């Protein structure tokens, strides 16, 4: 007997809410530089898993919410998120074929682009830091990607999100 997939889309929003909570988690200044980019990671997973449901408009809204959460210039994270999700949507078929460690390299590159766009926007506003420190979250995000992928895939399969 084959059962039709459930449409539990609330799981997508719940995981995004959890990613926002992890992004807003207060950390000591030393640890903030290495904290993974949780929201883009979750967005990239859902683009890979549900490309027909997760689109650029939703990525723009999530980016605006991330701007409000992080007190950035309005639209900087939105622009970075849209560009990152655009490239993830272009590459999702290939990325599904890759092993997890290969996906981590692609995720690291996508998040380097995301971080560079955010850094560029902050430097236009006069907030500059050392550029190499900006890419450390992309590296830690690439290292965390296999666990994020396994957990979110398990949730997607358990709740039959389609």
Give a quick set of tags describing it:
globular, mainly alpha, 162 residues, single chain
Plain-language structure description:
The structure is a single chain. The relative contact order is 0.17. Helices cover 73% and strands 0% of the residues. Helix 1 packs antiparallel against helix 3, helix 3 (38-49) packs across helix 5 (76-97) and helix 6 crosses helix 8. It has helices spanning 10-23, 29-32, 38-49, 56-70, 76-97, 100-124, 131-134, 136-158. It is globular and about 55 Å long. The two termini are 18 Å apart. The mean pLDDT is 91. It is mostly helical. It has one domain (10-21, 33-158).
* Residue-averaged pLDDT: 91
Poorly predicted ranges (pLDDT <50, ≥5 residues)?
Answer: none
Classify the secondary structure makeup into a structural class. Answer: mainly alpha
Measure the end-to-end span: 18 Å
- Characterize the overall form: globular
Radius of gyration over all CA atoms, rounded: 16 Å
Into which percent range does the helicity of residues fall?
Answer: over 70%
- Number of structurally distinct domains: 1
Counting DSSP H or I runs of 4 or more residues, the number of helices is: 8
